[in-house]
Amino acid sequence: MDIATLRQIVDLLPKDTPTLRTLETTIRVGAGFGGAWYSSQKVHLQRWLSEYNTPGPYKRNASRERNARFMYQHLSCATCLYWLLEAAETDAALMRLAFDAVVVARPNGASQCGAFRRVISWETAKGILLKPNTSKSWPVHLARQIGDDDLFNPWQKERDLFDDD
Asked: Which domain holds residue 63?
């Protein structure tokens, strides 16, 4: 999946999610903590992705295009990852495991994100983000872009339709 597709998906997700604020308050990271400039994790991720293939304020190495998998593996804000998957309506039990993993991790972004990704890998996240469910449905242009006919084919595993991720 490329960054442009991920950006389109993020734009469709709701700003507020059921348990994000509890996580932010528990680990004291997110909107309202540590001088965060953003008002929500959605705004945070939208801005981050809009500047992704540039150095941006995070001084990224923009020497080559990176895909969504690379972004997911390198993002160092656990509350941002948590929002992304909770907003995409990940199963509540899986989100609870991710919540608990982040809370018990060492109190830094790398450790918390690593704990989160051990619960929800990129492959799992990608499947959740690409599969519309009852309360979110992708516009026709986005469904065509990500290949909606192949999206629901369980035998598609051997063939990667989503770039080099």
From this structure: 3-158
Residue 35 domain-assigned (yes or no): yes
In a domain, 164, yes or no: no
**Residue-wise pLDDT tens digits, 2-51:** 999 999 999 999 999 999 999 999 999 988 888 888 889 999 999 989 88
Cα 45 vs. chain centroid, distance in angstroms? 8
Q: Which amino acid is at 122?
A: W
Amino acid at 10: V
- Beta-carbon contacts of 155 under 8 Å, excluding residues fewer than 6 positions away, are none
Identify the bridge partners of residue 133 per DSSP, sorted by sequence position: 136
Exposure pattern of 48-67 as b/e (b: 16+ CB <10 Å)? bbeebeeeeeeebeeeeebb
